[in-house]
């Protein structure tokens, strides 16, 4: 692993470039020109996320990409080549879609918050990847779409993530029309949190990630899991889960330390 700067380390694993800056792990899709989610790239990204989940020193994960496209989604050339298989491609299509779904579930279940950094087009499964992340920040020239209907293929798997990030009617608009929306519309729809000029994207992402990473790692893990779990529950059950979570959180070491530090007017010293 080669040093990039004194506190920053970077390594390339297959089609994903990993870079550490203190407690922040940056995973960059490096599959130009379109950063398609091929089998190989999804395997590499999944392995990097697995490693992050086991690393207690990682507090925030950023998912970025190289080039002018965030991700064009699945590798249609790779998939089309398997139409010549004896089963017409069914087994390979199932493998591709299952792997993508498992990757999105891995992001949702990751203990650490995951921030998408988007500069360029995020389409189909690339848009699904953005919607699956906990937070998303994009440049003012970024665009988003779920264009499957344009080629006779409804974006059913991207639909799952997009309908959980955007308002249902706005998500359906994207899915039915296949039209590309700009960054401002994506923010209105709920797909992204913030829009920044391209020249400031990395600066804003680094600041955003460092602020989150400065918080209690126990609270971040507990909070993300509870947020994801309560979102699909009826209101009474959601509150039942939240009450139990809050009680467990109050008993955690970081809560004792954080409250003690607040009352003692000092900076907290978080655990792992």
Cα separation of the termini:
24 Å
* Name of the level-1 CATH class of the largest domain: Alpha Beta
Strand order of the largest sheet: 1-2-3-4-5-7-9-12
- Averaged pLDDT, please? 93
Largest sheet: 8 strands, mixed
Coarse structural class: alpha/beta
Strand content: 15-25%
Number of domains: 2
Unreliably modeled segments: 1-8
Quickly give the CATH architecture of the largest domain: Alpha-Beta Complex
Count of DSSP E strands?
12
Radius of gyration: 20 Å
Describe the global form.
Answer: globular
The name of the CATH superfamily of the largest domain reads 2-enoyl-CoA Hydratase, Chain A, domain 1
What does this structure look like?
The two termini are 24 Å apart. Residues 1-8 have low confidence and may be disordered. By secondary structure, the protein is α/β, with parallel strands linked by helices. It has 2 domains: 2-213, 2-enoyl-CoA Hydratase, Chain A, domain 1, CATH 3.90.226.10; 217-263, Lyase 2-enoyl-coa Hydratase, Chain  A, domain 2 (Orthogonal Bundle), CATH 1.10.12. A hairpin with a 2-residue loop joins strand 1 and strand 2 (8-13). It has 11 helices and 12 strands. Strands 1-2-3-4-5-7-9-12 form an 8-stranded mixed beta sheet, sandwiched between helices. It has a 4-stranded mixed beta sheet with strand order 6-8-10-11. The chain has helices at 39-54, 76-81, 90-109, 125-132, 156-165, 168-177, 183-189, 201-213, 217-230, 235-251, 253-263; strands at residues 2-5, 8-13, 16-21, 24-29, 60-65, 69-71, 114-118, 121-123, 135-139, 143-145, 181-182, 194-196. The chain is 49% helix and 19% strand. The longest helix has 20 residues, at 90-109.
């Amino acid at each position: 692993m080669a040093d990039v700067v004194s506190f920053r380390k970077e390594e390339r694993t297959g089609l994903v470039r990993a870079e550490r800056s203190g407690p922040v792990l940056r995973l960059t899709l490096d599959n130009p020109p379109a950063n398609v989610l091929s089998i190989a790239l999804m395997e590499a990204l999944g392995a990097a996320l697995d490693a992050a989940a086991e690393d207690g020193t990682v507090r925030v994960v950023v998912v970025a990409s190289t080039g002018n496209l965030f991700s064009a989604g699945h590798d249609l050339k790779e998939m089309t080549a398997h139409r010549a298989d004896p089963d017409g491609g069914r087994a390979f299509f199932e493998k591709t879609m299952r792997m993508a779904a498992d990757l999105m579930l891995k992001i949702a279940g990751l203990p650490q918050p995951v921030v998408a950094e988007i500069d360029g087009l995020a389409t189909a499964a690339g848009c699904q990847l953005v919607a699956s992340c906990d937070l998303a920040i994009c440049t003012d020239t970024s665009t988003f779409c779920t264009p499957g209907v344009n080629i006779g293929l409804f974006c059913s798997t991207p639909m799952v993530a997009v309908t959980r990030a955007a308002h249902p009617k706005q998500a359906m608009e994207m899915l039915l029309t296949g039209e590309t929306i700009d960054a401002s519309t994506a923010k209105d729809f709920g797909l992204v949190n913030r829009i920044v000029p391209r020249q400031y994207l990395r600066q804003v992402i680094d600041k955003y990630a460092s602020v989150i990473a400065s918080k209690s790692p126990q609270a971040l893990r507990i909070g993300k899991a509870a947020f994801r779990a309560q979102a699909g529950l009826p209101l009474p059950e959601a509150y039942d889960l939240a009450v139990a979570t809050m009680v467990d959180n109050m008993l955690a070491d970081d809560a004792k330390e954080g409250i003690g530090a607040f009352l003692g007017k000092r900076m907290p010293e978080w655990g792992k």
